[in-house]
Amino acid sequence: MSVEQAPVQRADFDQVMVPNYAPAAFIPVRGAGSRVWDQAGRELIDFSGGIAVNVLGHAHPALVGALTEQANKLWHVSNVFTNEPTLRLAKKLVDATFADRVFFCNSGAEANEAAFKLARRVAHDKFGPEKYEIVSAINSFHGRTLFTVSVGGQPKYSDGFGPKITGIRHVPYNDLEALKEAVSDKTCAVVLEPVQGEGGVVPADLAYLQGARALCDQFNALLVFDEVQSGMGRSGELYSYMNYGVTPDILSSAKSLGGGFPIGAMLTTDALAKHFAVGVHGTTYGGNPLACAVAEAVLDVINTPEVRAGVKARHQRFKTRLEQIGQRYGVFTEVRGLGLLIGCPLTDAWKGRAKDFFNAAEQHDLMILQAGPDVVRFAPSLVIDEADIDEGLDRFERAVAHLTQA
């Protein structure tokens, strides 16, 4: 006997949810590929990808199959035991990257929390308690825990929660001279996003990352790359550091790693991993069989030459058309980013109005993102059909035309 469910409406959000989000006025109920349908049956094209999460779109058969198969086997056993999906996924990540060891958790914030804790622990064990400073970039974003908002370079996320974690310095992104002034013998880690995501989709300069690597080597500090948003094929390589040829000591991954199922990972080397001995750090759900089974399927699909080449080709398709739209309507100063993490900074006349573009796109049946108030952001599926790209960009142009004529 089935229990009849009460109808759900968008107004329910304002009654029962903590008001820390302001979701759109419609409720998506079904997705397939890069199309989404709301409660009324309206179809939208998805260029947002769940904020760079839905790396294979919605309801991809490989992910549905992996989840369904694992759901009939084993859901959770805790880290008192290990499990097969965890070990398979860890081996594949190690084989595909610089890393020797993997720590699994549930989110990007947790992956970064583990990375920052490991960096401080290594410095403490090897050099003593005075070497604990972390240098990160202004406008960076590393998560919402107290530690990660403190390392993140956006005070709007860290102010108002009592004393901040000390020993963190923020310097301008892509400014190597400023980094040189900040790094010292007290520095345990330099933390950077190879592509700043929430900070406006700003790729690092090659010389900047090379300089950061050299500084870390010089001062016995660890180079930590936050690839929560830029990783897992989004840049056209499995991880963005591969585009630059600059190898970190610790890398954080999440978002696209699970293709929509919550999972995070911290990747590092044997020498550093040994500082996380039994009991030093942990998580109840990390390495959950369901999450790891799905993530393994994600990795198997995207880490192929065909998909990586496809990302680069799709980037050009987006960029060419977005540059045309930007010029025609005078709304963008440039189109930047790597792969299918694309940012369009607004011209002075439109500064501060990224939300208006988001709203106009939704009214024209398109889901997009913003990266702060001044940048329109796109993070679609890496395997989005070319027909969906073209139709979505047609809808976007109609939205921009409507907005600029209003």
TrEMBL record:
N6-(pyridoxal phosphate)lysine: residues bearing it: 255
Q: Name one GO biological process term.
A: L-arginine biosynthetic process
Q: PROSITE patterns recorded for this chain?
A: AA_TRANSFER_CLASS_3 (PS00600)
Q: Which residues bind pyridoxal 5'-phosphate?
A: 108-109, 141, 226-229, 284
According to its UniProt record, which cofactors does this protein need? pyridoxal 5'-phosphate
Q: Name one Pfam family in it.
A: Aminotran_3
**Catalytic activity annotated for this protein?**
N(2)-acetyl-L-ornithine + 2-oxoglutarate = N-acetyl-L-glutamate 5-semialdehyde + L-glutamate
Q: Which domain of life is it from?
A: Bacteria
The keyword Ribosomal protein belongs to this UniProt entry's keyword annotation: no
Q: Where in the cell is it found?
A: Cytoplasm
- Return the cofactor note field: Binds 1 pyridoxal phosphate per subunit.
What Enzyme Commission number(s) does the record list for this chain? Answer: 2.6.1.11
Q: In which pathway does it act?
A: Amino-acid biosynthesis; L-arginine biosynthesis; N(2)-acetyl-L-ornithine from L-glutamate: step 4/4
Quote the record's binding site residues for N(2)-acetyl-L-ornithine: 144, 283
Its cellular-component GO annotations read: cytoplasm
The molecular function GO annotations come to: identical protein binding; N2-acetyl-L-ornithine:2-oxoglutarate 5-aminotransferase activity; pyridoxal phosphate binding
Stored InterPro entries: Ac/SucOrn_transaminase_bac, AcOrn/SuccOrn_fam, Aminotrans_3, Aminotrans_3_PPA_site, Class-III_PLP-dep_AT, PyrdxlP-dep_Trfase, PyrdxlP-dep_Trfase_major, PyrdxlP-dep_Trfase_small
Keywords for this protein = Amino-acid biosynthesis, Aminotransferase, Arginine biosynthesis, Cytoplasm, Pyridoxal phosphate, Transferase
Chief location bin: cytoplasm
Q: Extra info from the record?
A: May also have succinyldiaminopimelate aminotransferase activity, thus carrying out the corresponding step in lysine biosynthesis.
NCBIfam families, per the entry: arg_catab_astC (TIGR03246), argD (TIGR00707), PRK01278.1 (NF002325), PRK05093.1 (NF003468), PRK12381.1 (NF009047)
- Name the family the entry cites: Belongs to the class-III pyridoxal-phosphate-dependent aminotransferase family. ArgD subfamily.
The UniProt subunit note reads as follows:
Homodimer.
- This chain's protein is named Acetylornithine aminotransferase
